[in-house]
Amino acid sequence: MAAKKSVGVLKEAELKGKRVFVRVDLNVPLDDNLKITDDTRVRAAVPTIKYLMGHGARVILASHLGRPKGVTPKYSLKPLVPRLSELLGVEVKMANDCIGVEVEKLVAEIPEGGVLLLENVRFYKEEEKNDPEFAKKLAALADVYVNDAFGTAHRAHASTEGVAKYLKPSVAGFLMQKELDYLVGAVTKPKRPFAAIVGGSKVSTKIGVMESLLAKVDLLFLGGGMIFTFYKAQGHSVGSSLVEEDKLELATSLLEKAKSRGVKILLPTDVVIADKFAADANSKVVPASAIPDGWMGLDIGPDSIKTFSEALDATQTIIWNGPMGVFEFDKFAVGTEAVAKKLAELSGKGVTTIIGGGDSVAAVEKVGLADKMSHISTGGGASLELLEGKTLPGVLALDDA
């Protein structure tokens, strides 16, 4: 993917008084009282919005929330207005729709440096269909397009891809830029030794990432539920641990591919097993090759943690995607938390540490180490696809630098 134009190259002359349509990712979790439970994505959107406000732009924010079928009040973006206003230091106005006469009137009233939030773009099914007429209506509201919604950049939707066809310039926001710099940069020009830690419950969801990373990394660490498919493929007994029977041959071929490429694969040598899938299960540590019947592996063991930590000490770049165990249960979060702490420590020594989206982000936040990492990706699916070497439609649509 060619480097893209960044919002930072647009100066006062190109922004003052201009209507700027900013696609942000405000898809945050809300509780039953519609209170935000995690405002990470809202905070991540602030630098781009403040830059535009500071240059006298009239800012129009667009986002989706959840997966509504038509207009669904519980997926309204209204609950985000107080937090956005607080973070931006201005009173953010809210529209009851994202297109139409009412919205056009509100857009005309935005003062320079002011902000208007549009209602959930996914209230229209045309958004996800990337309908050109709908994209034209969104584009008609503005003069300039900024895409800062990395989390949906892997989707060709009207507000992430369609509008870019009708607005020039179309540029990447600061968050989008940072994601691309780290995720694309790390994979194409890493400081070596370069390691990837891949976890999660299933091999099937991580095949693309593992195959893509095998061509680039020096070391590959495996954890999470997917390891049992690898163990079984090697002839070990795995008790009642999670196994994808139809992926055994694939596991074997991935190990062979690594060998032929000179990539060192580290599989956990010991595991924490449990007698049931529950927070209060009885547990014990056993060698990876000796899981008894009726027991399931739910975390990597102390010996593996030690081996992994020592091997990571020698690396310069690390990408982590997917937890080492069932970290939702404190008893089986030890491996995941140990990896998070190790990465935080290495970050402090100048190692580039990238948390590549999904559950690993939640794990790092749970341990309170998010601010210690070089980069935490805000996109789940988007980061995975980028690490798999795919191009993202929401990025391709932007102007080249």
From TrEMBL:
List cellular component terms (GO).
cytosol
Q: Which domain of life is it from?
A: Eukaryota
Q: Which residues bind substrate?
A: 25-27, 64-67
Q: Which InterPro entries match?
A: Phosphoglycerate_kinase, Phosphoglycerate_kinase_CS, Phosphoglycerate_kinase_N, Phosphoglycerate_kinase_sf
Alphabetized, the UniProt keywords read: ATP-binding, Cytoplasm, Kinase, Magnesium, Nucleotide-binding, Transferase
* Broad EC category: transferase
User: Residues that bind (2R)-3-phosphoglycerate, according to the entry?
Assistant: 41, 122, 155
* Record-stated family: Belongs to the phosphoglycerate kinase family.
> What is this protein's record name?
Phosphoglycerate kinase
Q: Which organism is it from?
A: Punica granatum
